[in-house]
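Incident log, structure service

09:12 report received: a user says their structure output differs between two submissions of the same chain.
09:20 pulled the input from the user's history:
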Amino acid sequence: MSERIYDNITELIGNTPLVRIRRVGPENAAEVLAKLESFNPLSSVKDRIAISMVNEAEKSGEIGPGSTIVEATSGNTGIGLAFVAAAKGYRCVLVMPDTFSIERRKLLQALGAELILTPGPAGIKEAQRVAGEYAQRTPGAWLSRQFDNPANVKIHRETTAREILRDTGGRVDAVVAGVGTGGTVTGVGQILKQELGKDKIRIVAVEPVESTVLKGGTHSPHKIQGIGAGLIPAIYDASVVDQVIDVAFEDAVRVARALSKEEGLFVGISAGAVAWSAFEVAKELGVGKRVVAVLPDTGERYLSTALFEYTDVVNAPATTPQMWAEMQAAAAAAANA
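09:34 re-ran on a clean worker, output below:
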């Protein structure tokens, strides 16, 4: 009998599954498949770019024993870098706006990363500034620059896009992905346009309605964590994007909750935004077509957010002394039976 043992947790990144969405979404529309990036080791699509950026930096000699990895993050890239750093023995320092969920902070610290918080209203740009200054004054520090790093796009070209082609047998009419750094939509879009033909596949980018910078609009604070950074990333390739959809926070939350309750897909707020957009595309394409929605992470990252602020909780009646005595008597009787 052969062994199947991995030498390093990072070897488990990628090969995430496609699952049909059957109960949520419009009728008389295209089939929607969820690509569940929560199946990565640390439960998000950003695990892919973390290992890619670190591996490329090792190959180029930018980092080695004793190096410190530094990055500005909304959470998931930081978590990916933190676990890769832990697995490879690097120090990791992350800068994050203080408006992102407490779960992300705790995960980063649990993975051994050092965390610097910046004012939330200043957005990711302030976190980038602080991270840059920290890296400049710290000997042996390497700034991964997720918004500018070509290794970000490279990993999606080599893995995410190829997985979609393989698992759909090449039968896919649209791919929908949120835009934070732009790596997913760019890498996937470039390969699928190349392999299927520019006019044979629709690539759709998703951003919050409050931050329509991809359409030339303005940025304002919003609550869809992980997308809508308020800038057009250097690695974002608009030439492969056919459509940009703006999503309201309320729609993202509604769909994320529905996916959890009706499909068993426990996903985050940005995944709700992507799924909502995929349903809109599915209605446009119609029956017989197929849409892949890249759902970036797990709902566990958002337990302290509005995504799980339920108002329909029913409290059980308090246990009275008499009820407690009856329960104990019943348990004793059962034990002696």
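09:41 both user submissions now match this output. Likely a transient worker issue. Closing.
09:42 reviewer note: The first strand starts at residue 18 and ends at 20. The chain is about 40% helix and 15% strand.
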